[in-house]
Write a structure and sequence with these properties.
By secondary structure, the chain is mainly β. It has 4 helices and 22 strands. Strand 18 and strand 19 form a beta hairpin.
């Protein structure tokens, strides 16, 4: 490559990458001679806004950055940034060619997706004494400050429509439908961003898509295979309510492959929280903790101040914040419970929390102490931590995420055929 763009190859790859800086697309030829062309580009615009003025802890947060007075972005740095290149063509060494076609190529439509807001909250609390000009240390608290902001992105996404084998004439067609769970690209959003010169577009909210069908056609146009996807929404009782996108999440209910039907059953599908809930654990899973802030609790530890005798708080004190501990009863909401097969039988899944073991006799460094503190202070699981029967120093904590603990297979008469229990040491 020449100019301002270059590529870094890993794993001793012998691939050759070229970049057309004029038109902005990539071509890759791998070590086996397959050529890949990437010409369709996904653009992203990120913007942020502060909302710390007159904000009370625990009150509802803004739904998006539009309309807030403190909207911030750098037009040259943060707008219309090419983030992803989509494959347009694959050519084999013997001349076979796959063409990838996308919705909007023929009619000029463009498709945009607005992300769920990402909320940020920070708190500054002075805990150390301040040296005065006379050499003494002030004995008053300098103050507490907090900052609240959010960010969102607008992505110009590409939606795959068709893959065509140019030599054989076979093709795979992807059919899409409207979805209701994504953030609406409203007229206000269009006007604000358009005036700012970021994404000057004409947009139809109905263009937000989900995959409904895949169809495989022979070279003579005969349909050879059809795969249909059936969807509804988690928290579907919120559908149609104001700001329902805060709760709705697309849910796959079933798949049919020709005449063979598969269906799914989920655990408590209408009990998920809003998408910007404060009640999440360290790993991003729902924990039902009813937090009023987003920052964690902070322990006051030795070494935080250069003059420890003049601290405003004592060692061992805690600056209280959100609970980020894991709670399996909440974290498992929405997990796959049963998978039903065309034969009438089904599989049933049971889950358990991931776990972490800590040897408290070996936590001399600061990071290990902090980890043990957070797991101890944020523990929401009854009966945890568990002490090892072999050593009082080894503690097992439940942590975020799920893993399958049991998989049972039943026939169409609900008779158990197979029982599988998974053990993690």
């Amino acid at each position: 490559m020449t100019g301002s763009v270059s590529a870094i190859l890993i794993n001793d790859s012998n691939a050759v990458i070229t970049y057309d800086e004029t038109n902005g697309y990539f071509t890759i030829v791998d070590e086996y001679g397959f050529k890949y062309e990437f010409k369709h580009i996904e653009y992203t615009t990120t913007y942020a806004a502060g909302y710390y003025d007159n904000y009370a802890v625990g009150q509802p947060e803004p739904l998006n950055a539009i309309g807030l007075s403190d909207i911030r972005f750098n037009r040259n740095r943060d707008s219309n940034i090419p983030m992803t290149w989509y494959v347009d063509k694959v050519i084999s060494p013997d001349g076979f060619e796959l063409d990838f076609k996308y919705y909007g190529e023929e009619d000029g439509n463009r498709f945009f997706q607005v992300s769920t807001p990402n909320y940020f909250e920070s708190k500054t609390e002075w805990i150390c004494a301040k040296q005065q000009g006379n050499g003494n240390y002030a004995n008053n608290l300098p103050g507490i400050s907090a900052d609240h902001s959010l960010s969102q992105t607008i992505q110009e996404v590409k939606i795959l429509k068709e893959i065509v084998d140019k030599k054989k004439g076979t093709r795979i067609v992807f059919k899409t439908g409207q979805r209701e769970d994504l953030w609406p690209y409203s007229t206000n959003l269009y006007n604000t961003v358009n005036v700012a010169g970021v994404v000057p577009i004409d947009y139809n909210e109905n263009d937000i898509r989900k995959l409904d069908q895949m169809e495989v056609y022979a070279s003579n146009g005969v349909l050879k295979k059809k795969i249909a996807f059936y969807h509804s929404y988690f928290d579907e009782h919120k559908l149609g309510e104001p700001n329902d996108e805060l709760y709705l999440r697309l849910k796959l209910d079933g798949v049919t492959v020709d005449n063979n039907a598969f269906s799914m059953v989920y655990d408590r599908p209408n009990s998920l929280p809003s998408k910007h809930t404060r009640d999440v654990d360290f790993w991003g899973y729902y924990n039902g903790a009813q937090n009023s802030v987003r920052y964690p609790s902070i322990p006051i530890q030795s070494g935080m101040c250069t003059i420890p005798d003049n601290m405003f708080t004592n060692y061992g004190d805690i600056i209280n914040g959100a609970s980020f501990g894991s709670d399996f009863q909440f974290g498992s909401i929405g997990s796959l419970k049963e998978l039903h097969y065309p034969t009438g039988g089904f599989s049933r899944f049971e889950y358990e929390s991931n776990t972490a073991k800590i040897d408290i006799s070996d936590i001399n460094d600061g990071s290990a102490q902090t980890t043990y503190f957070y797991l101890s202070e944020n523990n929401l699981e009854t009966g945890y931590p568990v002490t090892s029967p072999f050593s009082q120093d080894i503690k097992t904590f439940k942590v975020g995420g799920l893993r399958i603990a049991k998989n049972e297979l039943f026939d169409r008469n609900n008779q158990k055929l197979l029982y599988c229990t998974l053990f993690v040491l």
